[in-house]
Design brief:
By secondary structure, the protein is mainly α. Helices cover 54% and strands 7% of the residues. It is globular, with a radius of gyration of 17 Å. 20% of the residues are buried.
Length: 147
């Protein structure tokens, strides 16, 4: 008999589903657009992984301590903030446009990470497995960023 009540499966959390999608997109991005020998490659991947893993650990630790849960959720948010800054840096130094949240492209990107447990089988392939459809990035320069 368990002393502490389990809170359910972390896979059912919308936050976890979004974090997993962010990790998948980031993995694809760094593999296709960053050189392996630059530090940003590993840091972006680690920030995406950290967000996902801290949500898992936070849910597990929530059975024992709300304080631990909150600390781990804050760590996940910090990792996502760090990752966002890396994406913004990538765009800025290459003269690419940062899309507003209400833009058509941003809305299409958010749809690539649904908030349901049913995962779409779509066009983007990670490690040979079809996982997500991502919109094409319309840039101001002649370079097109297609994820």
């Amino acid at each position: 008999m368990a002393i502490l009540k389990q809170r359910g499966d972390y896979h059912d959390l919308v936050a976890y589903q979004k974090a997993e999608c962010v990790y998948d997109v980031t993995y694809y991005f760094v593999e296709h657009f960053l050189k392996h020998d630059i530090r940003t490659h590993s840091q972006m991947l680690q920030a995406a992984r950290s967000a996902k893993q801290n949500l898992i650990e936070g849910m597990r630790d929530a059975t024992a301590s709300s304080k631990l849960e909150i600390n781990l959720l804050n760590t996940a948010l910090g990792s996502l903030s760090e990752l966002r800054a890396d994406y913004e840096d990538y765009l800025r130094v290459r003269g690419l446009e940062l899309k507003p949240l209400d833009s058509e492209w941003s809305q299409a990107m958010r749809k690539a990470c649904p908030s349901t447990t049913t995962r779409p089988i779509t066009a983007v392939r990670l490690r040979g497995k079809a996982t997500r459809t991502l919109p094409t990035w319309p840039s101001r320069s002649s370079t097109r960023l297609t994820i």
